[in-house]
Amino acid sequence: MSPNLDFKRNTAIDLDLGWINHLKVNRNAADRRAASLANRRTVKKEYQAAWLIRAIECIDLTTLSGDDTPGRVERLCRKAMRPLRADLMQALGLESLTTGAVCVYHEMIRPAAEVLQGRLPIAAVSTAFPAGLSSLETKIREIELSVAAGATEIDIVITRQHVLTGNWQALYDEMVAYRQACGDAHVKAILATGDLVTLENVAKASWVCMMAGADFIKTSTGKEGVNATIPVSLVMVRAIREYYERTGYKVGYKPAGGVSSAKAALQYLTVMKEELGNEWLQPHLFRIGASSLLTDIERQLEHYVTGSYSAAFRHAQP
Questions:
Q1: Residue 280 CB-half CA count within 13 A
Q2: Contact 103, 141 (CB under 8 A)
Q3: β-pair partners for 187
Q4: Element (H, E) at 125
Q5: Closest alpha carbon to 161 in 118, 192, 182
């Protein structure tokens, strides 16, 4: 992650249970706002191309499969460093372009580091991803090992039962411990919003994790039945906005799971621009967790350049 020189990293503040317990979310209003964003006309032509390039810059290019190998991770990393073909780069007037980071399991950190050589951040999923149901001691040690192996960002999963039982102190203490274990590595708190039942729970979990020092809040592991959605994103980014207004700390946002089309990426970019402003459309404050999204963006950019769509199989898969 490459923050601006004046960027002030989020620091844990005291847990305010009075604030947490009084948080409310108007579900109908969130749904109406989400529908208005989804139904409006999107940017077109050169403006759409520019937005899609920005989306590439904000992708955490991800492989989290049980059959991952060093060879697959090497391909992922090389695609992350050169996400578009040379002819498209030239036609678009781009001299350099990379994704925001690569995201892998702990065992794939070293293969990624060997290829990237510090040129891109390495995000590692941790804390018994995706269920998060190991002992706290085990999860903290997992973070420490991933940081030692070369991960510069850690995507942790919260213990969902703390949210479902309203044990906000336990969630706060857990998140503080994760933040401390990460040290200089930035930490993204995965809320697994599809498991949290209500938007109020999403809002409260977002606030608790930010109060505990999370650098990013992230929707999903990608393994839940429901992953990133626009209503959930609205609740989370509005929590980020109000947290900044109250504390002065800017927290990043990462939708993940199911964001596989250029159209969906544009919707999330629109949410960020309209709810948080242009400053949050930068990789140090916005990421999209995705594996197949890049292929569709590349196809859309080829259509912009040539006027024709190519078959998806013609594009290199990360």
A1: 23
A2: no
A3: 154
A4: strand 122-125
A5: 192
Sequence-separated (6 or more) residues with CB below 8 Å from residue 251: 10, 210, 214, 215, 216, 217, 240, 243, 244, 285
Strand partners, 190: 157, 218
Q: CATH top-level class for 17-310?
A: alpha beta
Q: What pLDDT tens digit does each residue of the chain (318 aa) get?
A: 444 556 889 999 999 999 999 999 999 999 999 888 877 767 889 999 999 999 999 999 999 999 999 999 999 999 999 999 999 999 999 999 999 999 999 999 999 999 999 999 999 999 999 999 999 999 999 999 999 999 999 999 999 999 999 999 999 999 999 999 999 999 999 999 999 999 999 999 999 999 999 999 999 999 999 999 999 999 999 999 999 999 999 999 999 999 999 999 999 999 999 999 999 999 999 999 999 999 999 999 999 999 987 766 666 555
Q: Which residue has the tokens 């697994």?
A: 192
> Is residue 75 classed as helix, strand or coil in its secondary structure?
helix
Structure tokens at 27: 């579900």
Q: 225: which 2 tokens?
A: 């039945």
Structural domain boundaries in the chain: 17-310
- Torsional sign, CA 239, 245, 251, 256: positive
Closest among 151, 186, 180 to 9, alpha carbons compared: 186
Q: What is the pTM of this model?
A: 0.94
Q: What is the DSSP letter of 278?
A: G
β 186-190/153-157 pair status:
parallel
- The sign of the CA dihedral 18, 200, 275, 83 is positive
Reduced to 3 DSSP states, what percent helix, strand and coil does the chain have, rounded to the nearest 5? 50, 10, 40
Residues taking part in catalysis: 155, 218, 254
**SS3 category, 156:** strand
d(CA 226, CA 188): 19
CA distance 9 to 19: 22
